[in-house]
Write a sequence for this structure.
């Protein structure tokens, strides 16, 4: 039996981010968006995502990007829709649940849905 622990360290966040993006790459609904972002340095992007989630969960100040601007740019390229966000939220939540259990795991899922809602409003639907 695999006993899950809560998200406690940056290594836990790295595990979450890497696991999520491995699943994302092969996802039939939204995987193409990540795979087609050829202009991105994917290692740097994943590092940014670790910093983003570290800041979102532990308030470290380690993330300085702007997810709204990034998603507005993505929307110009891919025409994002509610289905993309539903799939992203489902995949992220499922990944958290597979790996972790506890207060920070719950917070990660809540933050993901909240941020997703704000991004959707900001890109105009």
């Amino acid at each position: 039996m695999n006993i899950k622990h809560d998200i406690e360290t940056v290594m836990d966040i790295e595990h979450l981010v890497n696991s999520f993006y491995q699943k994302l790459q092969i996802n039939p609904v939204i995987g193409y968006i990540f795979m087609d972002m050829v202009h991105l340095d994917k290692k740097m992007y994943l590092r940014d995502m670790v910093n983003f989630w570290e800041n979102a969960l532990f308030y470290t100040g380690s993330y300085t990007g702007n997810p709204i601007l990034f998603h507005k740019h993505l929307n110009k390229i891919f025409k994002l829709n509610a289905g993309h966000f539903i799939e992203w939220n489902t995949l992220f939540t499922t990944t958290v649940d597979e790996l972790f259990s506890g207060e920070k795991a719950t917070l990660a899922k809540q933050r993901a849905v909240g941020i997703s809602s704000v991004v959707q409003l900001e890109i105009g639907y």
